[in-house]
Amino acid sequence: MKIDLHAHSTHSDGVLTPQQLVARAREQGVEALALTDHDIISGLAEAAAAALQHGIHFISGVEISVTWGRRVVHIVGLDIDPNSVELQARLQKLQQARDERAQRIGVKLHKAGVPDAYAHAQTLAGGGNVTRTHFARVIVASGSCDTEAQAFEKYLAQGKSGYVQTQWATLEETVALITGAGGVAVVAHPARYKMTRTMLRELLREFRALGGMAMEVVNGGLNADSIAANAALARQFDLLASVGSDFHHPKNRWIELGRLAPLPQDLLPVWSKFSFA
Ligand code: AMP
Ligand code: MN
Ligand code: MN
Ligand code: MN
Question: Is ligand 1 within 6 A of the CB of residue 131?
């Protein structure tokens, strides 16, 4: 079965609407899809309706920004109840923090020679959450950088002139929030954090102790060595295994919906918990 449990829409930093995303997933032969926008669940209803139409299984998801020590990590919630009042309320607060951060990023970028970045990013976001990805697109459009990756390197990455520190959710409340909304908490893309192995183990240990149940083992574009390293961690911490492309943009030729390496056979897939499995 072709499954993809991590993808973004226009409600955060993806470029396809939920409907377009589901249509593309269908074209790619995906049979079960989760929409996991950054700190927002407003796209879930549209995606669920489209999935019903296309005859694919839909899993309600979210990708929550977490401050862990001095770092930011991402925790995906899968199979959450979008009607959870607690979840909605907390996400609304995170959206506020996001918007305040975006305004401050705008001021910093202005000083760094990119004018009106906040207004432009907001326009690009079209009512969805404003993310650094939007700022990267604004910086490229302004001619200050050639690629989004460069915009991160030069302005938006931690410590650079357009970076603004924010207090996101804590790991503890995030796991509780997702679990409380009937979902499964999943550590997103562990290979992407610039952490030592020791630090990554500490994150997983703490996550597990808080009641976290799963981690992503396979992501879009991951090589076999990284998948093997993730699988070893899933075994060590007795975590369910998830798979997700983290699809944002059809122009990224390395990442496609549902194009994912198979999970090592001995791992228990996170979707064994879901009703379609
Ligand atoms: P935010 O949550 O607003 O801080 O934005 C984080 C998002 O920026 C991630 O989900 C990625 O989509 C994107 N991102 C982070 N780092 C990079 C990078 N180095 N190159 C391209 N995109 C990045
Ligand atoms: Mn993103
Ligand atoms: Mn992420
Ligand atoms: Mn993501």
Answer: yes
Q: How many domains is the chain partitioned into structurally?
A: 2
Do residues 263 and 173 share a domain? yes
Residue 220 placed within a domain? yes
The pTM score is 0.98
User: Nearest bound ligand to CA 254?
Assistant: 1
pLDDT in tens, 239-256: 999 999 999 999 998 999
- φ/ψ of 83, rounded to 5, equals -90, 0
Of all protein residues, the one whose alpha carbon is nearest to atom 16 of ligand 1 is 152
198 shares a domain with 67 = yes
Name the closest ligand to CA 244. Answer: 4
Q: Are residues 232 and 120 in the same domain?
A: no
Say which residues have a Cβ less than 8 Å from residue 207's Cβ, sequence separation at least 6.
75, 171, 175, 185, 187, 215, 237
* Any ligand 1 atom below 6 A from CB of 248: yes
Q: What is the pLDDT of residues 154-179, one digit of tens each?
A: 999 999 999 999 999 999 999 999 99
- Strand ranges in 80-213 using DSSP code E only, listed in sequence order: 184-187
Going from the Cα of 17 to the center of ligand 3, the distance in angstroms, rounded, reads 18
